[in-house]
Specification:
- The protein is of the alpha+beta class.
- It has two domains: 137 residues, Phosphoenolpyruvate Carboxykinase, domain 3 (Alpha-Beta Complex), CATH 3.90.228; 81 residues, no CATH class.
- It is built from eight helices and nine strands.
- A hairpin with an 8-residue loop joins strand 7 and strand 8.
- The two termini are 39 Å apart.
Length: 236
């Protein structure tokens, strides 16, 4: 079993927040922490929490840290998990789609020295060309350009509106305040975290920012949540 540290919000929230949570959360007050869930609809999330719908069945099932409600103190990084922002792709005219594909093909990340390998650049160009030729029935195949190593945020108003394309409504942030004990891991050992759900002392688990991880926290016990609020759209 991989070793982990137990972080108790009642004891540790006075410590340096970055050293403690590593962008997975932040100390929000005496004895409790806060973090953000990113969703297309904050109402759906807030209603589920209000009605005490079990997090392990209503949250993100099968993610890196197992089932539950996923949070991060850096919500901009996790907008890819809200799929509604891609709705604009389904209604584009052929002319608008070509403008989008041209903008993607000429994105500065492909010209930036040492940002991408030649293989990565060619792979992206091939993808764009296949979408242009109608090889994919669903243009959402382009979404892979958002992730590593490309990191092209082409759903944002700043990218789309200069092309004459109206973006979809942005994802929402749900600010969650919580308390309890959480298992802190250095990476995401999915198979080793799942048995911890049976531990009556633990409310969830998290990993801080690291060489191969992005800070994120999962809550699997509803009782750990103190309050939740809509905190507006995720901005660029």
């Amino acid at each position: 079993m991989m070793k982990f540290k137990v972080v108790d919000t009642a004891l540790h929230c006075g410590e340096d927040p970055w050293d403690l949570w590593g962008a997975a959360a932040f100390c929000a007050g005496p004895g409790f922490a806060g973090s953000y869930h990113v969703a297309d609809s904050s109402d759906r999330v807030l209603n589920a929490l209000k009605n005490n719908v079990p997090l392990v069945t209503s949250g993100d099932v099968g993610r890196e840290l197992g089932p539950g409600l996923y949070l991060s103190a850096m919500p901009q990084i996790w907008v890819s998990r809200a799929g509604g922002k891609w709705a604009f792709l389904k209604g584009l005219s052929p002319e608008a789609m070509n403008r989008l594909l041209d903008a993607l093909a000429n994105h500065h990340h492909f010209q930036q020295k040492n940002y991408l390998t030649s293989w990565e650049i060619q792979s992206a160009k091939d993808l764009i060309d296949r979408v242009r030729r109608g090889f994919y029935q669903d243009p959402c195949a382009l979404i892979r350009l958002v992730d590593q190593p490309y990191n092209i945020r082409f759903w944002t108003p700043g990218f789309l509106r200069p092309l004459g394309i109206e973006p979809s409504p942005p994802p929402r942030k749900v600010l969650v305040h919580f308390a309890g004990k959480f298992a802190k891991f250095d990476n995401c050992p999915y198979d080793e975290i799942l048995p911890l759900h049976a531990d009556p002392e633990l409310a969830g688990a998290f990993v801080p920012n690291g060489f191969s991880t992005m800070g994120q926290l999962v809550i699997w016990k509803n009782a750990a949540i103190i309050a939740a609020y809509d905190d507006g759209p995720v901005t660029e």
